[in-house]
Amino acid sequence: MNINERLWQRIALVAGVFAFVICILLIVTYLQIKKADPINMKVISTLVERLNQNPSDIELRNEVRTLDLLSRKAYFTNQWQIRTGGYMLLISIAIMVIALQVVSLNKKKEIILLTNNNGSSDLYQKTTQKWVIISGLAIIAVALFFAFLSHNELKNKFSDASIVKTEKLDNELNNIVTDTTSITNSQSDTLVSKIDKLNTDSAIATKVVESTDNFPTFRGKGGYGIANQRNTPTKWNGKTGDNILWKIAVPLAGFNSPVTWGDKLFITGANTSKREVYCIDKNSGKYLWTTVVEKVTEASAKIPKVIAETGFAAPTAATNGKAVFAIFANGDIAAIDMNGKLLWSKNLGDPQNHYGYSSSLMIYNDLVIVQYDQRNAPKLLALSASTGNVVWSTSRKVKISWASPIVVNTGKRTEIIVVAEPYVASYNPANGEELWKIDCISGEVGPSLAYANETVFSVNDYSKLAAIKLGETPQQVWENNEYLSDVPSPVATDKFVFLATSYGTVVCYDSQNGEKFWEKEFSNGIYASPMIADGKVYIIDRTGLTHVFKVDKEYISLGENVLGENSVCTPAFSNGRIYLRGDKNLYCIGK
Q1: Host H or E run for residue 540
Q2: How far apart are CA 478 and CA 468, in angstroms?
């Protein structure tokens, strides 16, 4: 035996022992996850219930925040450990196989007619080797199987705990029966015909006119949180009715925000079996029509798993004044004309993620832009608004994202900009060609991008807040990781960036250099994204309390307004009014 052979034997031995240890650890990890819950959502839910009963308990609030962060970190850490263990196992097996192959080739050179001298011994040795190999492969297969089970177990624990809650909420909302929500098809047709008769000039009635009062997509035109409005209200009370112009119940649950065009407002709702789009008269609060999205081509009968915080109708719809476009948690997307007629529908494939699909739609000219960054085939695609046909589809080498696209005009060109680990990336809206990308974000990205003054701002929890200056060669100009968001999207001006965290802290940064101007801690968590209108920032916390303050480098409060029910939805602004969706009702707020 030469020195090289001994070296390779030792490498094979070490790799084999290492692979065996990893196998055992993966099996033990699965057993531990089955026995003990690393996420412990039941504990958090119990603490939240206690906090609701005693909201002034600061220590309890901090404990909930800490446990929530720890549970998320435990989830991601366990998933990372399982994936890393699987990769290490495969690598060690590959090294062991290579080393054994080298030793085997060396042996063949040294063996001279051993079978003639000791055939039975050689047969015994081969038989032994065969069973050793079979046993080793069996252990490895079992370990990989348990790694797969561990990954799914974690994912299910993170989502299943909330599904019962979601279904319960759906059932409660389905039982709501009011005069405003029980419009029959004939009544809806009659109402539409009356509205059409009021339009004496048919050319004016059919012409689509872009207006600053239209709020066509999530977070307004372009999708980055700026509403071109004046005289927006700062005082209201949903309990007493002060400055509440109207309030209506919503038949099906949904965490999407309202969008508007002309005198019409649109929202969506869904549960495990039904998906609906609602059109509401923006001035009176009366339902004009309800369209059920059903019998969709190539739709799967499989009900997607979603968590309570996402639900089955999280993405906000979009409208171009000719139709409204809606997408749901099962991948169904549909276009409905302004009178409630279904124009087209299709299924984009089962969304592969563990929270539920929530990326909102965006409009560019006659295209419907869909960010479909799912586990199996992440992509950005554009559908024809008139036919639903795919105009272009661009594959993306990114991880799952729940963020939504933004459309910005830099003065030189229009870009669609999206975010998912590890990139902020820009695309040509005409053909889907990638224009640029910058590696600056990590984790499971929920917040969408902010944009102001030719600068894009990205953020995610356990990552960083980054500013990217656009131009011929876009580049990151600063970053900050003191306060980060995992749900609400930031909003920016040419001077400031405002960021809200899910645990209730709001921060103002200098948009030029990332310097922190101020921070303000509120009593409740925030999921809705902040909006800027009329020189004011509007932020709604999860209890429905809206904080209004000046766009300024000092925190100057202009009002704190009670809605009367919980809300995680970003408000819409139109004609100086605010349209805000709560868990059960939709509100019109104005003077």
Answers
A1: strand 536-540
A2: 8
The CA distance from 268 to 322, in Å, is 17
Distance from C-alpha of 205 to C-alpha of 197, rounded to nearest angstrom: 10
Q: Quick check: 188 pLDDT over 60?
A: no
The DSSP secondary-structure symbol of 359 reads P
- d(CA 524, CA 542) in angstroms, rounded, equals 7
User: Cβ contacts of residue 503 below 8 Å, gap of 6+?
Assistant: 65, 68, 69, 525
8 A C-beta contact, residue 480 and residue 514:
yes
Q: Are 450 and 489 within 8 A, CB to CB?
A: yes
> pTM to 2 decimals?
0.71
Q: Which residue has the higher pLDDT, 81 or 285?
A: 285
Asked if residue 197 has pLDDT above 70, the reply is: no
Highest mean pLDDT among 26-30, 119-123, 478-482: 478-482
How would DSSP label each residue in 264-288? Answer: EEEEEEE-SS-EEEEEEETTT--EE
- Which superfamily does 185-589 belong to? YVTN repeat-like/Quinoprotein amine dehydrogenase (2.130.10.10)
Q: Given this model, what pLDDT does residue 420 score?
A: 97
Encoded amino acid at 222, one letter: G
Q: Is residue 347 exposed (0-12), middle (13-18) or buried (19+ Cβ within 10 Å)?
A: middle
Query: How many Cβ atoms sit within 10 Å of the Cβ of residue 368?
Result: 23
Task: Say yes or no to pLDDT of 139 above 70.
Answer: no
SS3 of 67, please?
helix
Domain layout of the chain by residue ranges:
3-109+120-174, 185-589
**Residue 106: what residue type?**
N
Whole-number Å distance between alpha carbons of 528 and 273: 26
Question: DSSP letters along 114-180, please?
Answer: HHHHHHHHHHHHHHHHHHHHHHHHHHHHHHHHHHHHHHHHHHHHHHHHHHHHHHHHHHHHHT---TT
Q: Are the CB atoms for 164 and 85 separated by under 8 Å?
A: no
Measured CA to CA in angstroms, residue 495 lies from 408, 455, 537 at distances of 18, 11, 14
pLDDT digits (tens, 9 = 90+) for 100-138: 777 777 766 555 444 445 545 455 455 555 555 665 566
- The phi-psi region of residue 533 (left if phi > 0; otherwise alpha if psi is between -120 and 50; otherwise beta) is beta
Q: What dihedral do alpha carbons 57, 61, 62, 64 form, nearest 10°?
A: 140
Residue 377: per-residue pLDDT: 92
Q: Which DSSP symbol is given to 211?
A: -
Which DSSP state fits 223? G
Q: 223-280 pLDDT, tens per residue?
A: 999 999 999 999 999 999 999 999 999 999 999 999 999 999 999 999 999 999 999 9
- The pLDDT of residue 70 is above 80: no
Q: What share of the chain is helix, strand, coil (3-state, %, to 5)?
A: 30, 30, 40
